[in-house]
Amino acid sequence: MEPENKKAAVAALVIVLGFGVVAYWLPTIMLAVGGVSPLLAVAVAMTFVMAFFIVLWLRSRAQHRKAGR
Questions:
Q1: pLDDT in tens, 18-53
Q2: How many whole angstroms separate alpha carbon 13 and alpha carbon 6?
Q3: What Å distances lie between residue 26 and 14, 49, 52, 58, 66, CA to CA?
Q4: Residue 5: band (very low, low, confident or very high) from pLDDT cuts 50, 70, 90
Q5: H helix and E strand count, the chain
Q6: In 2-13, which positions are buried (b, 16+ CB within 10 angstroms) versus exposed (e)?
Q7: Cβ 43 vs Cβ 29: under 8 Å
Q8: Measured between alpha carbons, how far is residue 60 from residues 10, 13, 30, 66 in Å?
Q9: DSSP letter (8 states) at residue 35
Q10: What is the pLDDT at residue 8?
Q11: What pTM did the predictor assign?
Q12: Distance of alpha carbon 26 from alpha carbon 48, whole angstroms
């Protein structure tokens, strides 16, 4: 495996594991926040989903910029 591919694989692993850990605790977080406001719990869930796609989008932009596209 080339060093560049290895770095991309490690970055993907870190991203997926990081979001996996947060996703594991997300129901507990939502229940705690939902005690304050149900709309706030929905906002927490939406922020989590949006953050996942934003991180992937930013990673894609960085790779394209690095490749000179």
A1: 999 999 999 999 999 999 999 999 999 999 999 999
A2: 11
A3: 18, 11, 13, 23, 34
A4: confident
A5: 2, 0
A6: eeeeeeeeeeee
A7: no
A8: 15, 15, 29, 10
A9: T
A10: 82
A11: 0.75
A12: 9
Whole-Å CA distances, 63 to 22, 26, 69 = 25, 29, 9
Cα 53 from chain centroid (whole Å)? 6
Q: What was the pLDDT predicted at 69?
A: 62
- For residue 1, the model assigns a pLDDT of 74
Of 50, 47, 52, 45, the residue nearest 29 (C-alpha): 45
Residue indicated by tokens 């005690």: 35
